[in-house]
Specification:
The complex is a heterodimer.
Chain A: H1 5-17, H2 40-49, H3 54-60, H4 111-120, H5 123-137, H6 139-146, H7 152-157, H8 160-163, H9 166-176, H10 183-199, H11 214-227, H12 230-233, H13 247-263, H14 279-308, H15 314-325, H16 328-338, H17 341-356, H18 360-373, H19 381-395, H20 397-418, H21 433-439, H22 454-458, H23 464-467, H24 470-499, H25 501-504, H26 507-514, H27 524-539, H28 549-561, H29 567-582, H30 584-590, H31 593-606, H32 619-640, H33 650-682, H34 695-714, H35 719-725, H36 729-745
Helix pairs in contact in A: 1-2, 1-5, 2-5, 3-4, 9-15, 10-14, 10-15, 10-16, 11-13, 13-18, 14-15, 14-17, 15-28, 16-31, 17-18, 18-20, 19-20, 19-24, 19-27, 24-27, 24-33, 27-28, 27-33, 28-29, 29-32, 29-33, 32-33, 34-36
Chain B: H1 2-10, H2 17-27, H3 32-36, H4 40-55, H5 63-77, H6 97-113, H7 128-141, H8 143-154, H9 159-170, H10 173-182, H11 186-201, H12 205-216, H13 226-238, H14 247-271, H15 274-281, H16 297-315, H17 323-331, H18 347-367, H19 371-388, H20 398-406, H21 412-429, H22 436-461, H23 468-506, H24 522-532, H25 534-559
Classes of the chains: A mainly alpha, B mainly alpha.
Amino acid sequence: MIVPRGAADQVVNERLTGEQSPSMESPNPNQQPFPSSTTASRSQSVHKEQSPTLPRLNLKSDSQPHASPEILAPTPRRHLLESSESQHWLRTPPLSPSSSRGVSPVSLFSSASLERRVRTTSYYSTRPSSSSLRTLFDSDKSKELAGNGNGRKHEASDKQDIEMSMGRMWVRWMHKRNMKGWVIPALVAVSTLLKWCIGLGSYSGEATPPMFGDYEAQRHWMELTVHLHTSQWYTYDLEYWGLDYPPLTAYVSWICGKIGYWINPAWVALNASRGIETPESKVFMRATVLAWDLLIYVPALLMFVKTWQGSRSNRTQNLSLLTLLFQPALLLIDFGHFQYNSVMLGLTILALNFFAQGQDVLGAICFVLSLGFKQMSLYYAPAIGSYLISKCIYLGPKAGWRLFVRLAIVTTASFVLLFLPFLPPFAPFEAILQPIQRIFPFARGLFEDKVANFWCASNVVFKWKRWASTAVLVKLSTVFTLLAFLPGVFILIRTAGKTSVGISGPAGNTSSSVSSTHSPTLPLLPYALLTSAMSFFLFSFQVHEKTILLPLLPITLLLCGAPAGSTMFGWGVLVNNVAVFSMWPLLKRDGLGLQYIITMLFWNRLIGYDPRRLPSRSFVQLLSFAVYGAAGLLHLAEFILPAPARYPDIFPVLNVLISTPVFILAWLWSIKNGIEVGWALGGLGQARKTTSTAPATAAASLAEATVKRGVTRAASLGFSNGRRRAPTASSASSSGRPRTATNMGT
Amino acid sequence: MAERKASTAGLKTPSSPTIERDLKAVTAVPDHTSWWNLTTSEWHILFVSTCLKMLLYPAYRSTDFEVHRNWLAITHSLPISEWYYDATSEWTLDYPPFFAYFEKVLSIPAYFIDPRIVDLKNLNYDAWSVVAYQRTTVIITELVLGAVLVRFIRNSVDTPSQRIISASLFLHPGFLIVDHIHFQYNGFMFGILLWSILMAREGRKLASGIIFAVLLNFKHIYMYLAPAYFVFLLRSFCISPSGQVQIKNFLSLANAVIAVFLLSLGPFVLLGQVPQLLSRLFPFTRGLNHAYWAPNFWALVTAADRVLLRYVTRTGANVAVNVAGVSSTSRGLVGDTIFAVVPTVLPIHTFAITIGFQTIILVKLWMNPTYKSFLTALTLCGYASFLFGWHVHEKAVLLVLVPLSLLAAERQAYFRTYILASVAGIFSLFPLIFTPAESVVKVIYSVIWLAFIYKSLSHQVYEFPKSLSYVFIDTFEKLYLLGFPLLLAFVSLFPLVVQQRSTSSACTPSQNPAECQEPNSSVHASRLEQMEFLPLMLTSVYCALGLVWGFCRLTFIYMKNESTYQGQMNRI
């Protein structure tokens, strides 16, 4: 019996969820599923049921073994349905929700992996049918919403509740209106406008002589670098905002300063310009941040979306970009508070992009540049370092060592280049110590102000500073940090060991084709970055509240690909929002309260975040409710009540106490996810020691190898990547395909 | 809402049943489903625009901000008899009474938020409370505009296009620049105007007339549009198509309008202050051009005068030169404009020219009093007043752009006129915002807005040019539009270059650069000061070219083509 898939699945769907949509009174598959008199709403609901839940349900419902047609269409290789476990980290539904493409059938081959996905993403199956009732009633409204266009019935009914997201509606509208090519320019333009509008407000240390704030620090460095010789950069008048970032910041300041000097020398006049706050100079300073952002961060994001999500639909890519571009925390700190974090973060994203493309050397250079801009990106170093090592392990002894040596040389060389003006031929040997001492100020305290990390939060009950000396605390925090990021590193290395090409196959013929692509441990990288950055934030020495931007980057990268309403999405947005909330005391001091409220509301609404739509009564949902409730109450209390005289810091401390648990949980969550993904990539058992001796095991290992190679290809995180490799893919695919055939035979 | 109160009260006098039906439609609070039933996309637009406008709270604000604060103080702390006499601040109350009542209403919450806002002596008060409060009132009162625009969508002929037009009006850069940065209440005023136009579209002409009368009592600049209203209502409401005078309609309209005016001016009539009020409203002591030339016909004439003066002084041609004009025009833009070569223009001349153009248009409207014809005639009336009026402000260009927007999706000819006028008109508003930070906002925002409007409407209305002359015109118009980026580049880079030159010539870079700020040679300074106005002049002349051409275009379309074209709106 051949039944159109949509109808049959609707039936299945209704059975599973125990709900019956009014359009199908009797769940009889023999009934003509598309009566000629179908109303618009009914056909909509049928279309609707051709939703991503389809393949999983087919697998689950044994009562309908032949519900799907027998003929299996070949699956396009880049299709996500050829679901490989490595994509588990993306937590995508098999089909991106905003796509209107039909669903290709599943091959049984990958059923095992699908089973797993059913488990992890089962909440999807409950959602559509509950919303289908609503779509039926709202069909008139949704018709109106969809505007005119050909496939609007598909679109209008397509997940009404998710479509509420502003960004999604807008992207869809743009595509419908034949303005597909304008989405990215418009996004960049609108985000630029928003950034500039945030910059209309005040900044750190505005009109607060004698020291002013971060704005003055950055401006002062321009003045410093333009007028002084490099040997004085790290020594000149350290009391007044001495330079304490690595050389790349100094070089960037020098470029900005030169331009500023060309426009108006008074802006960067040595000593005379201290505290200058003319409207023109402010505009110039804001413009430099925006320019660097547009030069580095925005292109890095564009490239990220193209490489890491190349296998996904255009609209999903646009949505990811939208999520990333309007991330409130970075907007507030860079364009409100005034800093150049986007340069550092942009360089790190560039490094990730190059890793994903398999160009590890370029990636390493970018990461060194990122380190050279701000030492804070050291927070990422454990993850990035262990990823590169895992790549070396993956490549096997011979190619691995080659890569390792290459990376070592390139990294050292770029560091040397960065510090060149401070090195012997150009400066005395002691000169290098000055920047180093300035960059790592261990002389300061365990924490400054109120920062939502472990030390500050536990300080409420346990006065660390009273109990131990600074030296002890430095050591203690180092040990804690080390222990905290170790799991991420460990998983990366271990997974690499298990998936290593060098173990399973002859290294000689594969490594040449494999080394040009990324390692299978790549999906672990965002989690490892999150673990490591979060552990530094929580446990390391001398952390600022702004540093939360570093853990935010990986979690936002993870979030941007997740469908609205998934657990990943819930965590990502929760951590983002709490991060902004944790910076509230700082932003309040800067006079950015209005911007704080607006950017946060705007972003949440843009991406369609609503904690009520998370998987119901899941941990993340309950946590979100609790945290938002507490945060809202705290804001309300702060607005209404004055701080009691006995505890003048009560509000910042409460803020820390609300934020820290969330960050700690996010850190644990990242470790848990890392373990899961590592498991999916390499299995839990011991590393395989199989050698191709017995024919049976050989076949098994071959099959596994195929899966693995298929993984690398399908998960090649990029259509672009696939295309790039297309001419050379013959070697890989020719070795892959016959094996698959033999495997199917046995 | 003040205007609703006003209209209800004003309408009580007439009592014929038909009118009452009409009135009920206007004055009855519309049922909630129709006002609140916004689609998701409409909520989104409202949300985004509100976010953006709120981010502009700390932005630059002109003296109009203090003007309105002062009016809050006047209406709150003085009795009504002194409103139009008070001169504590130089910013005296010079809007009609309804606006004064409106300020009175606004001043009540202001007092509770911060009593210092309404303190008459507290001049130039700019605490966060007053900024936030006044900016918020602009955003809130602009919701009138939003509500009316939503109503425009609901019963329109071509809903998707109307949706875009409504969105474009609600997000108009003109409103952003003039209301949310510069500070005025134009969104609210144009909301009332569009409400009146909406009533005309729905055939409720009495209501339309009354609302327009109310609007006139909010801000008298809308008198520019009054002739079109007068002719339209007279022809289509007071005279039947066959030519019979409908005396009942006429009387009800007349009574209602008089009632509105009585309500507004009544207290001042009783106090005997009408002459004082009128002298405040119509200060005829000002010059032909505003400080910055509005991009109208007189800007072109003034520019031509300057060119002629150059020509005369260089060639020594035998032309009588007005000596006063030489210095006046060389200074350029301040105060009274006295021409050196061109004959002097008096208010009566501008008045005559304006009326002349309007008469031509109104005759056409008389012949063809349909809604669409009315809309075009209304636009053209405002347009003529803007181009030829005495002492026109650049902000008045909104009077042209807003009704013209409603015609945008009609067909290619209208659309092109709309694009030309919008680009030129919005660009001519740019000099209002001269601070560097806000300049970036106005440019990026306008570009985004224009790109969206152009992309989403142009393909719907596109028509191929019919003849060779059309092709030429089309090309020239495109070239003209392409000139704007160049003009923008010039205008924004010019001050930089001038400053560069002044600093480099005044001191060498090796000296302490802080001292270089002071230009030390007075000759140099005066030359620079002369040059200072060059970008402004260029802007206004270039925009004036486009706007005058747009007027010719629209008049031509209206007079010539419309009789043959049976387009979308003719179906109404």
